[in-house]
Specification:
single chain; alpha/beta; 2 domains
Length: 181
């Protein structure tokens, strides 16, 4: 084998291994922050958002935005303003890169703690978070959210919010629950 080809393949393998390690560290980082990265399929996103059909120019937050696929979809299809909050810097970088590549203007991805995010102007909030983290968010929701705000909780019910629940989208793996303040 040609020595140039050999070293080129070796460098490629090292780069791939490096990328896998960075990705794995990013996933571990998210998991340690109580927000493991679990992407939702595009088909499921369509089903979830078709229930509410967000209104044009409303403010749509995603807490734990991962790679930003939900926000990119809802901004493109419904014309909302999107804000993604993510603790993992690698996923924030990826989200920003993909949004820029799609030439989306009214979308922002912030690397910050969801507890320090001002949600008072939100019209819609999407969460796919662990139940323990959702419980910790309840006082923040109570203090900051305005009347009429819709919270979409994918995967887990919001404990003690049965009276605010107005729709359930059942699924074999993760059901989706819709709440209105």
């Amino acid at each position: 084998m040609n020595i140039f080809i050999y070293f080129s393949l070796l460098i490629l393998e090292v780069l791939i291994l490096f990328a896998i390690c960075v990705y794995g560290i990013g996933l571990l980082f998210s998991a340690l922050k109580e927000a493991p990265y679990v992407p939702t399929s595009r088909k499921k996103l369509q089903e979830i958002l078709d229930v509410i059909k967000p209104k044009n120019n409303c403010l749509f937050f995603e807490l734990g935005s991962g790679d930003g696929r939900l926000l990119r979809y809802v901004v493109t299809k419904y014309g909302v303003r999107g804000v993604g909050i993510e603790v993992n810097p690698l996923l924030v970088w990826l989200s920003r890169t993909l949004a820029k590549r799609s030439k989306l203007k009214n979308i922002t991805f912030l690397r910050q703690n969801i507890f320090s995010t001002d949600l008072s102007e939100a019209n819609y909030i999407y969460i796919f978070l662990m139940p323990e983290l959702i419980v910790k968010l309840l006082p923040k929701f109570k203090d900051e959210l305005k009347k009429g705000t819709v919270i979409i909780s994918h995967g887990f019910k919001i404990v003690s919010w049965e009276k605010k629940l107005w729709k359930t989208l059942p699924a074999s793996t993760f059901s989706t629950y819709y709440y209105k303040i």
